[in-house]
């Protein structure tokens, strides 16, 4: 699913670069080379108790992921200009991901939290956290839809 997210963000044509990272810290490590970049980051997912009344085992979970946005904001010591850019970008990002149905075995994507992460080296970092319910069933392949 994360590869699908990356493709979806690239299609928005608002980011100079879209990539993926294992963690927020790893994504932020090298800063932003251009004006605006985004990283898809897997977040901890949760799974409910399994059920198996009759037939194959089934389980419902919530797959979580983040979109970390880095905006270059030179000569912006308080981040005010960067925040204005974040506000503009947020409409496009949420318009693309909120309610998106990634494929079979998934429900629709919802936003769970958004937060500024920091502003090192003239780069404003903002994390959007999303969740999507997922259904698992024994004997069914659950890779990327």
What does this structure look like?
It is a single chain. The protein is an alpha+beta fold and 145 residues long. The chain has one domain (2-49, 58-137): STM4215-like (2-Layer Sandwich), CATH 3.30.2000.10. The protein contains three helices and five strands. It has a five-stranded mixed β-sheet. The longest helix has 18 residues, at 80-97. The radius of gyration is 17 Å and the shape is elongated. The N and C termini lie close together (6 Å).
Poorly predicted residue ranges: none
Beginning-to-end CA distance, first to last residue: 6 Å
Global shape: elongated
DSSP summary: helix tally: 3
Mean pLDDT: 88
What percentage of the residues does DSSP assign to strands (E)? Answer: 35-45%
The CATH topology, please?
STM4215-like
The profile of the biggest β sheet is:
5 strands, mixed
The quaternary organization reads as single chain
Helix share bin: 10-25%
Number of domains: 1
Following the backbone from N to C, one meets helices and strands in this order, namely: HEHEEHEE
* Spatial strand sequence of the major β-sheet: 1-2-3-5-4
Radius of gyration over alpha carbons?
17 Å
For the record, the CATH architecture stands as 2-Layer Sandwich
In CATH terms, the superfamily is Phage tail protein-like
Helix and strand content put the structural class at: alpha+beta
């Amino acid at each position: 699913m994360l590869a699908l997210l990356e493709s979806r963000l690239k299609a928005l044509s608002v980011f100079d670069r879209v990539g993926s990272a294992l963690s927020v810290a790893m994504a932020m490590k090298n800063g932003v080379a251009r004006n605006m970049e985004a990283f898809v980051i897997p977040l901890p997912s949760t799974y409910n108790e399994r059920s198996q009344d009759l037939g194959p085992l089934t389980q419902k979970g919530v797959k979580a992921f983040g979109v970390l946005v880095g905006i270059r904001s030179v000569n912006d010591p308080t981040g005010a200009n960067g925040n204005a850019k974040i506000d503009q970008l947020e409409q496009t990002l949420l318009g693309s991901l909120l309610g998106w149905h990634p494929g079979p075995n998934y429900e629709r994507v919802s936003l769970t939290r958004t937060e500024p992460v920091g502003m090192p080296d003239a780069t404003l970092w903002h994390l959007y956290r999303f969740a999507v319910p997922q259904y698992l069933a024994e004997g069914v392949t659950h890779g990327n839809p």
